[in-house]
């Protein structure tokens, strides 16, 4: 797992980053849906402020239908409406209605009138009356483009042309193969003709209103564009395109007055709706326009305006969903787009914005990838949060002041994914390192130390380092003889060894020691690695004394058990060697298998000192460096020896207890006599040394319940006896050469 994380996992955030850029430029529907939700919210926070412009809606509202009758009205009444608006001097009249069938109330279409032999030719034809009214006024009739296929073709009244310099005239323009048009006499009479169809987004919300449409191989204007053309007396409508991209803008040109109106669009020729929501002042009920004597205020409200005729009545089913309204009159969208053109207030998403968004993702995402391994998750979290906040602030600023639609969501989500994935991988890698440390050290470090090391792995020099350490070796005396007693009971021997090693290990771990290895009945331990321990010598000495105490308790327990079983108990005795010095510690072994261990001369010396405990008849032997590093304990010097494999002599001591024992008067007297003994011995004053030996043996027995130094003093008695016969010579330095390990 750790190897996988090291090699491959760090590629994941980079893959996510590059994937986000690809997705950003892919125009997947879910990307557009996410952007739409954000941009809708921006419009809710700051909708387009309504400003009075010469655009009004003559509304076939519920009250008009109640006063004047249900829809469809007679074409005579619709003609009256057109005439009234023409008389008021309106600039254009756009019908958000298609008159696809002849008026069924025309005399020629009523069978009952034919049976009365009435001269129908003298009665007015409603459609012709309506057509005559349309011909006199700046009317834009509306038609519908739809799916399916038919041969119907609307009349093209607009002088439209696509920018000839472009190779792809309307890439992305909505195209259809069928149409529903007005009856011929009305369509022919109207100076303008435009499509009033809408195309909602996937969620049914209208956010973009097309200004041009394709029917088979011909381009047609929308109702609002055609109304603007008539109102501005434009003699040219130019669709400007960009090669391999699509529509860029639509231009209305009045050559006589040299006026140009530019309408920025998306590549499909659509204008983004900058919603101002329902505004009562925009609507004039149709019944008020058709009153015999029109209210002067109503007349003034309509005079010189671009008029759209449509309905807000729910029963006529022309309700649409916009970013600000669940249901609003469809005719209001034509009016709003016309208002936006007159005010030149547009929502814009130019071609450079997606590139800027991708660059933002790449820069900040790349910065996170670079910084995370170097400064850590906390600082990178602040950087990432700042970048996300900056993206949202920039997006809102661009919308509020310039009408730019800059997507903050995809960059924010991408940065979050990069940060979370990188942090998660770093966390997993850290946990893998910690688990490796726990696995490597859990068997020979205390749990507290293992967790400290896991939390601070930098304290572990896995490659090896030189540092001062204290080493401890201990094993069972006479283990071979003990093993022979269990020749027929290997399970019992295993239980004995485990029963010994477990409490001894607990003592070592409890005093911040590290168990290096078990070698049969022997334990090798060290202090001051892998974690620093300023009291490493003292902790090793403390462990040795506690191990001695625990062994006495174990012997009592084992003795009681053996006697209960009717056996003969042989007590367990151990020897302990402790030494302090500079060693090399770290992972050692082969490429296939290694252990955290320690090497050096002082390691070997500690092992030799453990072996000398049997020679001198004491349980704990420590080197001179350890005694100097741990002065708070009670020692007696044993000898000055040259151990096997060493040329330099070392002074060795036995550890007898803590500092309290050294303050005991009896021990102080023993220590004084013991020092005199060694002085006399090294100066070859054999008679004096013999006299002192008699005293030290008695004093040792009287100190604190008795200190067993009998074998030590017998050893010196034998040496003195030998040296009296065979003196070591005048050049003797008092060093004893140890021949055994």
Multimeric organization: single chain
Mean pLDDT, to the nearest integer, reads 87
Shape: rod-shaped
Assign the structural class, choosing from mainly alpha, mainly beta, alpha/beta, alpha+beta, or little secondary structure: alpha/beta
Measured distance between first and last alpha carbons: 45 Å
As a percent range, the share of strand residues is: 15-25%
Radius of gyration: 51 Å
SS field, number of helical segments? 24
* β-strand number: 27
In summary, what is this structure?
This protein has 741 residues and is an alpha/beta fold. The chain has 24 helices and 27 strands. 47% of the residues lie in helices and 21% in strands.
Q: Can you characterise this structure?
A:
Helix 2 (11-26) runs antiparallel to helix 14 and helix 22 (665-682) packs antiparallel against helix 23 (686-702). The relative contact order is 0.08. The chain starts with a helix and ends with a strand. The model has no long low-confidence stretch (mean pLDDT 87). The strands form six sheets. Strands 19, 20, 21, 22, 23, 24, 25, 26 and 27 form a nine-stranded mixed beta sheet that branches. The protein has 24 helices and 27 strands. The chain is α/β, with parallel strands linked by helices. The protein has three domains: 2-29 and 350-436, no CATH class; 49-343, no CATH class; 453-631, Alpha-Beta Plaits (2-Layer Sandwich), CATH 3.30.70.1230. The chain is rod-shaped and about 160 Å long.
């Amino acid at each position: 797992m750790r190897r996988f994380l090291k090699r491959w996992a760090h590629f994941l955030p980079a893959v996510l980053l590059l994937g986000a850029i690809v997705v950003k430029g892919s125009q997947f529907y879910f990307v557009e849906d996410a952007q739409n939700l954000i941009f809708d919210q921006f419009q809710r926070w700051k909708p387009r402020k309504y400003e009075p412009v010469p655009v009004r809606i003559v509304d076939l509202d519920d009250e008009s239908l109640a006063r004047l009758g249900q829809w469809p009205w007679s074409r005579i009444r619709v003609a009256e409406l057109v005439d009234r608006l023409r008389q008021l001097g309106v600039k254009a009249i756009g019908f958000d209605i298609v008159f696809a069938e002849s008026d069924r109330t025309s005399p020629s279409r009523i069978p009952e009138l034919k049976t009365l032999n009435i001269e129908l030719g003298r009665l007015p034809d409603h459609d012709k009356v309506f057509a005559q009214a349309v011909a006199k006024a700046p009317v834009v009739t509306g038609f519908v483009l739809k799916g399916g296929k038919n041969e119907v073709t609307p009349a093209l009244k607009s002088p439209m042309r696509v920018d000839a310099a472009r190779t792809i005239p309307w890439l992305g323009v909505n195209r259809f193969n069928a149409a529903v048009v007005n009856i011929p006499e009305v369509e022919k009479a109207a100076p303008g003709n435009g499509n009033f169809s809408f195309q909602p987004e996937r969620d049914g919300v209208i956010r973009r209103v097309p200004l041009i449409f394709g029917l088979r191989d011909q381009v047609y204007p929308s109702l609002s564009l055609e109304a603007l053309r008539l109102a501005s007396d434009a003699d040219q409508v130019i669709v400007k395109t960009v090669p391999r991209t699509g529509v860029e803008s639509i231009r209305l040109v009045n050559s006589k007055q040299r006026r140009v109106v530019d309408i920025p669009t998306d590549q499909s020729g659509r204008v983004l709706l900058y919603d101002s929501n329902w505004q009562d002042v925009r609507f004039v009920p149709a019944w008020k326009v058709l009153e015999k004597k029109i209210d002067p205020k109503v007349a003034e409200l309509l005079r010189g305006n671009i008029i759209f005729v449509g309905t807000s009545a729910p029963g006529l089913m022309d309700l649409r969903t916009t970013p600000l309204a669940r249901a609003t009159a469809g005719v209001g969208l034509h009016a709003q787009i016309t208002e936006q053109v007159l005010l030149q207030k547009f929502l814009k998403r130019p071609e450079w914005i997606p590139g800027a968004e991708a660059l933002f993702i790449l820069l900040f995402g790349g910065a996170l990838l670079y910084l995370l391994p170097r400064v850590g998750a906390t600082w990178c979290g602040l950087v990432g949060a700042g970048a996300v906040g900056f993206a949202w602030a920039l997006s809102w600023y661009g919308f509020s002041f310039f009408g730019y639609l800059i997507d903050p969501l995809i960059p924010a989500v991408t940065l979050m994914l990069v940060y979370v994935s990188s942090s998660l991988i770093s966390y997993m890698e850290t946990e893998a390192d910690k688990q490796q440390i726990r696995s490597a050290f859990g068997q020979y470090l205390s749990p507290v130390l293992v967790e400290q090391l896991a939390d601070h792995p930098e304290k572990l020099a896995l490659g090896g380092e030189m540092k001062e350490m204290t080493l401890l070796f201990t094993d069972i005396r006479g283990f071979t003889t003990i093993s022979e007693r269990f020749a027929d009971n290997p399970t019992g021997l295993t239980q004995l060894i485990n029963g010994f090693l477990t409490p001894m290990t607990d003592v070592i771990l409890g005093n911040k020691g590290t168990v290096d290895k078990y070698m049969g009945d022997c334990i090798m331990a060290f202090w001051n690695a892998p974690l620093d321990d300023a009291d490493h010598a003292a902790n090793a000495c403390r462990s040795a004394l506690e191990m001695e105490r625990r062994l006495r308790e174990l012997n009592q327990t084992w003795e009681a058990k053996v006697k209960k079983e009717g056996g003969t108990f042989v007590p367990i005795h151990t020897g302990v060697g402790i030494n302090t010095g500079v060693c090399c510690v770290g992972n050692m072994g082969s490429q296939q298998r290694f252990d955290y261990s320690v090497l050096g001369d002082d390691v070997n010396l500690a092992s030799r000192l453990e072996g000398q405990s049997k020679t001198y008849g004491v349980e704990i032997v420590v080197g001179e460096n350890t005694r100097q590093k741990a002065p708070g304990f009670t020692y007696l010097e044993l000898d000055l020896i040259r151990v096997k494999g060493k040329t330099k002599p070392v002074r060795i001591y036995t550890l007898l207890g803590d500092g309290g024992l050294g303050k005991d008067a009896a021990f102080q007297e023993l220590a004084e006599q013991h020092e005199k003994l060694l002085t006399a011995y090294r100066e070859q004053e054999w008679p004096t040394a013999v006299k002192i030996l008699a005293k030290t043996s008695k004093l040792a027995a009287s100190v604190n319940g008795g200190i067993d130094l009998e074998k030590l003093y017998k050893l010196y008695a034998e040496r003195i006896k030998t040296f009296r016969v065979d003196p070591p010579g005048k050049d003797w330095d008092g060093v004893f050469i140890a021949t055994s390990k």
